[in-house]
Amino acid sequence: MAFDTMVLKPARMAGVFALSLAITAGAAVLPGGMAMNARAQEGPASVADLSARLIDSVVNISTSQTVGGDDRNVPRPQLPEGSPFQEFFDEFFDQQPEGGPPRSRQVQSLGSGFVIDAEGIIITNNHVIEDADEVSVNFNDGTKIEAEIIGRDQKTDIAVLRIDPGDKELKAVSFGDSETARVGDWVLAIGNPFGLGGTVTLGIVSAIGRDINSGPYDNFIQTDAAINRGNSGGPLFNMQGEVIGINTAIISPSGGSIGIGFSVPAELARNVIDQLIEFGETRRGWLGVRIQTVTDEIAESLGMDRADGALVAGVIKGGPVDDGSIEPGDVIIEFNGRPIATTRELPRIVADTPVGQEVDVVVIRKGERKTVKVTLGRLEDSEELAMAPDATDDEDQAADMPATIEMFGMTLAELDETVREAQDIDESVERGVVVMDVAPDSAAAEKGIQPGETIVEIAQEVVSTPQEVVEAIDKLEADDRRNALLMLAAKTGELRFVTIRID
């Protein structure tokens, strides 16, 4: 993922070895001239004892993978005489049959991990061991032991390995409470950057709750402790020697540390790890709703004081709440006793709740607070139910089209079989008012409304004819409302909400 010239990179090492300098900084004076106390200015006097206690619990992960054997025929290129690339190509093509596919070869990569159980349980990142043919765990004293992958999770980038330690005594570390970590707390990272095993770096918690768009459950700890390629899967310790994060990614223009690293918090990792150890897979809770962000305009349309919660844009047929307990248009503001401040919090909290558990869900429905009880399903068993069917190519427009009206740049018509066939609207869209056309630069176009979408509700009231749309808007204007909340169904039946300014 690109951030201008900066690139978000997994902190895994492959191929090239290099040295990296960790930058430390301190400030003697606060803004305004207020002197800092000596403890805050200097930081920890030393982390030598802490490092010595923890370093043998951190391991290097080495993997090998067979690549190549491509069945494509690659001809030797014809280069001008004296070309500086001639030697390179001669060497490359002489290593394989003339005109034939490249020979398979072994590719090795390096990462980090840590021991959480003296019986031989090792934690690392999924991307460190993904697609590996062989995985080895290398200890600080030089011991090397082959490892077995017992479970991995792509969504949180966590993997669990098991080794047979034999006579070797392993030193396990424990997880701490990442939820109590504060911005500015000192943290320690130990890992295998650029293949330089047993490397210790010191920094602080730079931010918490970071969403870097790497997965559905992003909630990273950001740190300026130096994390480089090869640090992936290594632990982030607090000053008590407890693991509060698993180092996973960095933002860097060059691949080296610039002081922006990210760790999976222990709060998120522990439940995933427990499930991988017990079942070899994750078993996440599933609510069975499609959600979208509550914007200020949507909050105003719903009569909410502020834009909190997650707006239910649709309910998955056959899902846990397909019984009417939760409805499209509800705003979920609390789940199982935990407040939902933003949309992205809900999937993470639901996934972390045991499958089959009955929970209380607090929603705002048509301006009123309501508590409903829901029994969670299992996400992995039900992901296909959440997928909308693919839209097919539009068919020829029917000649016999019904009467239409225009509003906010939309040409609207009642949904009947003629319109359904012309716009290729799925049977799951049972009623509503179809958007036949959208004028460029109109209010509807600005909101991304597309021809073929169907207006199902306005201000949480069902509409079935163009005239009902006019009446609904007139009523909102009479009530001195500035925005109209529209529930739209795509051609495939998937729902979403938009607001249109009406004043």
Structural commentary:
With 503 residues, this protein is an alpha+beta fold. It folds into 3 domains: 267 residues, Thrombin, subunit H; 102 residues, Roll (Pdz3 Domain), CATH 2.30.42; 97 residues, PDZ domain (Pdz3 Domain, Roll), CATH 2.30.42. The strands form 5 sheets. The protein has a 7-stranded antiparallel β-sheet. Strands 24, 25, 26, 27, 28, 29 and 30 form a 7-stranded antiparallel β-sheet that branches.
Work out the strand percent: 25-35%
Shape: elongated
Return the CATH topology of the largest domain. Thrombin, subunit H
| Helix proportion | 10-25%
CATH arch. level architecture of the largest domain: Beta Barrel
Q: How many helical stretches?
A: 11
Quickly name the level 1 CATH class of the largest domain: Mainly Beta
Which parts are unreliable, with pLDDT below 50 for 5 consecutive residues or more? 1-7, 14-40, 381-402
Number of beta strands: 30
Our count of domains comes out at 3
Spatial strand sequence of the major β-sheet? 7-6-3-4-5-9-8
**Sheet having the most strands:** 7 strands, antiparallel
Distance between the termini: 40 Å
**Assembly context of the chains:** single chain
Overall pLDDT score: 82
Q: Taking Cα atoms only, what radius of gyration do you get, to the nearest Å?
A: 29 Å
Task: Please state the structural category.
Answer: alpha+beta
